[in-house]
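We both want to read discrete structure tokens more fluently, so let's practise on a single case. Once you have written the record down, we can walk along the chain together.
***
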Amino acid sequence: MSVECICKECGNIFHIIPSRINSAKFCSKSCKNSWRSKNYIGTNAFNYKGGGIKHTCLYCKNEFEIPKSHDHRRSNKFCSLICKNNYYNNMKIMYKCIECNSNFKLLPSEIKKSGSGKFCSKNCQSKWYSKNNIGENNRLYKKITCECDICKQPFKILPSRIKRNNGHKFCSKKCQLQWSSENSIGIKNSFFGKHHSNETKNKISISNREKLSGEKNPSYIHGERSRKYCYMFYGTNGVRIRSLIFYNYKCESCGKTNEQSLNEYKSSLEVHHVYYRKMSCCENELEYESGVRKIGDKLWIKERNGTINEHIIIGKPEKFVVLCKSCHSKTTSNNRYEWIKHYENIINTKYDGKSFITKEEYLNYNQT
């Protein structure tokens, strides 16, 4: 059973169920919106917050109103764009170009920012400098020959640059960074004893997230976000736990224990695949994986800069080493070939090619 109602906007008759007799006022959504647009305006609006703020236009002196949310903007000074342009045009000062002798106008703020009101365009500026800024008139003409404090190579530099570097002379950014790494440490470092605020840390974190995401990240390889390990690596008696026991739960590089790693990095010790092949302990080992190709005992290691190095495996092809988070992160840099040789040599010489205990030894370890 339906009940007849009259639409509050268009006056048409529409039918509704009896339970909506007190709430139904419109025959359609369009009629509802049309009625609200006429009636819910100004002080009658739901989100009315006292209206806008009145200002006086700097150019025409007329009063105008803007929303409260716009009060902090520069637009609160002028009632229109025309008034704004006319106001600033009247403030401009006439100048004469020293190259083409034509007149041009600039705002005082533009002169202060550029420090010059001599040229009407970049083209005139370039032409004038090409004629006059040569020989002794060129600021670079005053360069003197010095010896680099790091590499001892002769190079030319402006005296002002030496003064800026507190008397130190560097031929390149590389030499400057090398000097800083040797001298700007400890108390000598200008940031010694200081700490970033939480706000600054968040800004750095957001910036790094934008700069180091996807292909921009140095750890990005072949578009793979993550690579799975084989089923024999994890588990109650997997290679991972057997490697940790073999190395006595200590980082092979720095000697940190598992407890020290948890306290310092909030991360337990990690097991590193020496040959960077996460499927190496499985029977379904892939021929090409993680940027490393293996055929027999021969490896082709593809570095992140595109270079490819060859390596012959000495000993067993399944080698693992226990590292803390800090030491493990170093192995992901652009010198995989050197890290492979480094840890392969340690395992072969120090542990006779062994890097994890057998399943039988693991069972005996658990019983004891």
User: Anything to note?
Assistant: The chain is about 30% helix and 15% strand. The longest strand covers residues 298-302. The two ends are 83 Å apart (CA to CA).
